[in-house]
Design brief:
By secondary structure, the protein is of the alpha/beta class. The protein contains twelve helices and eleven strands. Helix 2 crosses helix 10. The protein is globular.
């Protein structure tokens, strides 16, 4: 930010020099990324990895503002209300396409009130159990156990209607079994209870539980991704074990407000593509089970629409009532 002591004449001179050098300076002199997630969350961690490279690509400081609350609504509403000049963006998880199906009303429409810039990566979800509570070691055994125990087991999620909730429900639906859902206010508390044995299983991101799988504190039953991931090639997918159609998408996307100009979209896309292709970002995300995938804005929009339609069908199937 320019210091308050900078005189008007110096400010104008600085701006003219920047424009002459080919840099576009916004009034605020920075690019803002509004995060509808708490600091320290998996999505926030990815954003921090890419932050310095985004600053380089935008030729301006990138400021991250965490605005968690109301299941992401607070941050998303702030993004929807921002000026469509390309200086306010966000990194979102695929959880946003679930919101229209699980909330009775929202102050915006998804994706109509936003501008998808690019899908930047696919994050694997993994079905894990507490090995002290669940003896099953693979999907076949776990499905058989669920049917045998008839609703006795319980599972956790980061909240009702979240990706983690729906992934577990998809698994139960495929297994033709039932289990008790225990929603938590965030993934952290859920993982803590999973480790302690307060809950039996869950379907979190691989990123959030990989250290616990490696230590033996948790056991991986299988990945919801269509293919194995290089971060943990030893973990089989659920699809390859006994359920070819059992897949649940988890992706990350950069979006902006509605009505961004073609030039603003192009500039943002160029910066995002540059940042998420940097070797240190690729390596760190790969090690966390997130595969880099940079789409076009049009492809990103299609992904939002397809994900919204897919989750709407699943929500209706499991009988989840909008709150």
């Amino acid at each position: 930010m320019l210091k308050a002591s900078l005189t008007r004449r110096k400010f104008v001179a600085a701006t003219m020099i920047a424009v002459a050098s080919g840099k576009t300076i916004a009034q605020s002199n920075h690019v803002r990324f509004i995060m509808p997630n708490a600091t320290g969350s998996a999505v926030d961690g990815v954003m921090r990895l890419a932050q310095k490279h985004l600053s380089t690509a935008f030729a301006a400081p990138v400021v991250v503002e965490n605005m968690p609350g109301a299941g992401g609504i607070v941050g998303l509403q702030a993004l929807a209300r921002a000026a469509p000049d390309g200086n306010t963006l966000s990194l979102l998880s695929s959880n946003v396409v679930i919101l229209p199906s699980v909330m009775k009303s929202m102050p915006f429409k998804i994706p109509e009130d936003f501008t998808p810039i690019a899908i930047v990566g696919d994050g694997a979800l993994v079905l894990v159990v507490n090995p002290k509570k669940v003896e099953a070691t693979n999907s076949q055994e776990f499905m058989a156990l669920l049917r045998k125990r008839k609703g006795e087991l319980n599972y956790g999620s980061g909240g009702s209607g979240t990706t983690l909730h729906l992934a577990s429900e998809l698994y139960l639906s495929t297994a033709e079994a039932n289990a008790k859902h225990i929603p938590y206010k965030g993934v952290g508390p859920m993982v803590t209870d999973l480790l302690s044995g307060a809950i039996d299983f869950a379907s979190p991101s691989l990123l959030s539980v990989l250290p616990h799988i490696r230590s033996g504190a948790l056991r991986a039953i299988g990945l919801y991704s269509p293919e194995r991931v290089s971060a943990a090639p030893e973990i089989a997918t659920l699809a390859e074990q006994n359920s070819p159609g059992l897949k649940f998408d988890g992706w990350l996307a950069v979006v902006g407000p509605k009505s961004m100009s073609a030039s603003a979209i192009a500039k943002a896309h160029s910066a995002v593509a540059y940042a998420f292709k940097q070797p240190d970002v690729v390596a760190a995300m790969d090690a966390s089970g997130i595969s880099i995938r940079i789409t076009t804005p049009a492809q990103a929009t299609e992904e939002f629409i397809r994900g919204k339609e897919k989750t709407a069908i699943l929500v209706k199937k499991i009988g989840l009532e909008p709150q």
